[in-house]
Design goal:
By secondary structure, the chain is of the alpha/beta class. It is built from 5 helices and 8 strands; from the N terminus they run E-H-E-H-H-E-E-H-E-H-E-E-E. It is 23% helix and 26% strand. An 8-stranded mixed sheet has the order 4-3-2-5-1-6-8-7. The longest helix has 12 residues, at 42-53.
Length: 208
């Protein structure tokens, strides 16, 4: 079985919209695109390079696919571009677009079922980058196996969030953590069953 890994840049208040540039995603009037750029350091670049050295295919929502398909084929001469070019790109979309980027395949019909079938087959892990809207259905149906979440020390206020209202209450286990020189926290989580609750018990009075 293949593992689905969600790789997401988020602000401290959970916003994942438009991390890479001013015009990446202005929907809803979002005007703070490119908010990750001032925090990038050499250590983060090394982590990203190591991440893409792992065997993977891509699982993308339509908006992210269109954005990447307009950029990476023209930049396939660098390490990231070569890896993305070689990966199979599975696209979660309700429409029937012309997927012109090499090795692209549409997931037809019910996206969650299509991804579940894909996950059950043979092949490398499936990396989900961005794709916030499509990612919600994967989270809701329990298909995400691992979250690699890069938490940036900035508050954005408005914007699309990684974990949106209505998702199942779920516990997460922290399996790895690093911090950059600029304060970016790179955490790896895996789902760990339903959210657990309890009550704070006051300390017993020992009479002293």
């Amino acid at each position: 079985m293949r593992k689905i890994v969600a790789i997401t840049y988020v602000s401290l208040d959970g916003v994942m919209q438009g991390p890479g540039g001013p015009d990446e995603d202005r929907s809803g009037g979002f005007a703070l695109g490119g908010w990750t750029v001032p925090f990038w350091d050499e250590m983060m670049g090394g982590l990203l390079a190591g991440l893409i050295e792992e065997p993977f295919d891509l699982l993308l929502g339509r908006r992210t696919y269109d954005l990447w398909a307009g950029y990476w084929p023209q930049n396939a001469d660098n390490r990231i571009g070569r890896k993305f070019e070689a990966a199979t790109k599975y696209v979660m979309t309700r429409g029937a677009p012309d997927l012109g980027w090499v090795r692209s395949q549409r997931i037809a019909g019910d996206a969650a079922q299509g991804v579940a079938d894909l996950k059950a087959g043979a092949g490398p892990d499936l990396h989900v980058w961005g794709s916030g809207d499509a990612l919600q259905s994967l989270i809701a149906t329990g298909l995400v196996d691992e979250y690699r979440t890069w938490i940036f020390p900035v508050l954005l206020g408005d914007g699309k969030r990684l974990f949106r209202p209505g998702l199942p209450a779920t516990s997460l286990a922290l399996t790895g953590s690093q911090v950059s020189t600029t304060g970016v926290l790179i955490n790896t989580y895996r789902p760990d069953g339903p959210a657990r609750t309890g009550a704070v018990t006051p300390a017993a009075d020992d009479g002293s």
